[in-house]
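User: I'm preparing a small set of examples for a lab meeting where we compare how different chains pack in three dimensions. I only have the primary sequence for this one, and I'd like the structure in token form so I can line it up with the others. Please keep the answer compact; I'll paste it straight into my notes.
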Amino acid sequence: MKKVIYLISVFCVFHLTVTGQSMSIDINGNASFNNLIFDIKEAGEDFQPNIESESNLEISITYINFWDKKDNPNEKWRINVHKSDITWNSEINLQIKRSGDGNSTSKKSRIKLNDGENFQTITNTPSYFFRGKDEVENIPLDIQLNGISLAMGAQEFETNIILTVYDD
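Assistant: Understood. Below is the structure token output for the 168-residue chain.
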């Protein structure tokens, strides 16, 4: 009876190892709205409708280890995006888009990314952003705000943007 339990345990551990995540997202840069200058000179004027971040925000999708890359070099993946609010006003829309294709890490493969080229609103519920295959580095992202008004008063707003990579 002990042998059967041992074999079942080994099988379960092996199964978890095989189905583990094989890719990761690395984020370089920062999205900030701190140094924007707003030119409001007259009573009744408000902020411009869309405010784009001053950022050099890039993500890279890479294999976690050498064997994942060697065994499955053309792995398809998708990115989901959502936010987790710290202090946020529900009237402000936070949006994201992919503004380029990045660079391939392999000279043999061509970059193949789909979707994500138009601004989409980031909500607190994960939603599809874009997809691709193989390793890609330095995919540029743009962040935009709209819905900000002087009527909100002087406040600081903070949220975290969460990007998750999934096997597709």
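A couple of notes for your slides: The mean pLDDT is 77. The longest strand covers residues 76-87.

User: Perfect, thanks.
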